[in-house]
Amino acid sequence: MTAHDLLELRRVSRHFGSFRALDEVDLTVRRSARHAIIGPNGAGKSTLFGLISGTLATTGGTILVDGQDVTRLSVERRVGLGVATTFQHSSLFMRETVLENVLLAVLRRAGRGFGGWRSVRGRTAAIEQARTLLERVGLPTRHDVRAAALSHGERRQLEVAVALATEPRLLLLDEPAAGMSPAETARLTELIAALPDEVTVLLIEHDLDMVFGLADTVTVMHLGRHLKTGSPDEVRSSGEVQDAYLGTTGVTS
Known about the structure:
This protein has two domains: 1-82 and 168-253, Rossmann fold, CATH 3.40.50.300; 93-166, no CATH class. The protein has 253 residues and is of the alpha/beta class. The chain contains nine helices and ten strands. Helix content is 35%, strand content 25%.
């Protein structure tokens, strides 16, 4: 692991009985990267994310975040170290407003809850931070709308705001464009591209247009193994990727 890398996986595996969902995967993600993981169904992408986020335990190997071994740490401990995740299935509080969803994340980051925030000044600052995050993700006029009333695309934007409220160094996005219209995907791509360099992004995505338009680095998974990592052009033109991922038809954007 070099000083330029934020995340490193060393021979990371996850077995379910005799099935090897991931088999000794090595991967590094450099700081400030927009790094995408692609591959067909069954390639091991979601399992990989579960291991990095802490929702799944490894069978073997080591996971390092900024040089610290997090392999056995809980999700909460990893969040405290700057690892935030948005999953394909929404985890928002649907009965609460857009602002309340983000505010709760801000207060949790500060070690407080709605009922435990005694300082009016502190609560005002937290509300202002939540409003700033909503502007960043393109929801500046939706503060008082319940999350349940948002469109699918808006919910994904809100999930990014909630994740950003934890002040992540590493943001994991699990199929962020799933179920989105082309216009919604374009807005989300712009949002992710505009995130500050302090936030390193690692995403799983099936939408190759989004991947090749956003990522500076692409990793291809195949049958639980790391196949290739390179620039979008390197991956797109790779014969082994074409054979393993899309047969002989090629990888196109």
